[in-house]
User: Fold Methyltransferase type 11 domain-containing protein from Streptomyces spinoverrucosus.
Amino acid sequence: MHPQTLEEAELRDVADVAICHNTIACLAPAERRALWPALAQALVPGGSLLLQLPPAHLPDDETERDFPLREHTETFWMWPASRAAMISDLAEHGFALLPGGADPAVLAMTLTLRDSSPEQYE
Assistant:
């Protein structure tokens, strides 16, 4: 955990694994595009990325859940994306699909290539 975005933390080659659970759907497309290169920088080559996929489309209706003994309302903004679109976006930043993904809700990728251009590390 860091008090700033991953991009602002400027982590380089410090992680073997990155896990994005229950977060990607809440990131707007522009925020996702900023996250992918920051993840690629933070992971060591060969590192793994596990992320829970956002829904492929928005639900048709609002979802309401009743919780006993409390009243609470939450609203979550959500930006859907297909599995194929997520794989394509991540591939642009050097990620490749790991074989044998058993859970269709989880995307397992590995960092195979990294953009080594100098401006990436400024």
Summary: Residues 22-42+78-93 form one domain. The longest strand covers residues 43-52. The chain has three helices and four strands.
